Amino acid sequence: MFSRKRLLTALGGVILGLATTVSIGAGVNDNDTMYVSFNQPVALPGVSLGSGTYIFERLDIHAHSVVRVLSRDRKMVHYTAYTYAVDRPADLRRGQVISFAETSPNVPQRIAVWWPEDSPGRQFIYPEK
Predict the structure, then answer these.
(1) C-alpha torsion angle, residues 82, 92, 38, 70 (rounded to 10)
(2) Residue pLDDT, tens place only, 109-124
(3) What average pLDDT does the segment 46-65 reach?
């Protein structure tokens, strides 16, 4: 049988647990979220994206930069991974938001770097072949 003391102890434990819970969610800064459209298929490490518009966003998780790529309607996450911070080259035109890596013909172009506004670029990490 349940005693009143056990019930109050359990309830106190639940309240204490809720009061001390730390959020483990990732924060997204509006300055690090960008809609990017492609008129041909492109690739990220391990995933191909068809032509269309995608949301690129940088997440701050414990001082590591993670990039997440979502569908325009935010219903599907296509890619989430760590990236390297890279400085914007002085000769890169201001409006350029994506740099591509060289690829073979007939395969989707690989995205090398995403250039969010007013922050370092995010270089994608591809496995060595």
Answers:
(1) 30
(2) 999 999 988 778 999 9
(3) 87
112: its two tokens: 């090398």
**At residue 29, does pLDDT exceed 60?**
no
Here the tokens at position 102 are: 């060289």
Q: Are 51 and 39 in contact (CB under 8 A)?
A: yes
Rounded CA-CA distance 105/108 in Å is 8
Please choose, from the candidates 126, 67, 72, 122, the residue with its C-alpha nearest in 3D space to the C-alpha of residue 102.
Answer: 126
Question: Residue 86 carries which side chain, given as an amino acid letter?
Answer: V
Interior/surface letters 32-65, b for 16+ CB within 10 angstroms, e for the rest: bbbebebeeebbbeeeebeeeebbbbbbeeeeeb
Residue 10 corresponds to which tokens in the numbers above? 């359990």
**Is the pTM for the entire model greater than 0.90?**
no
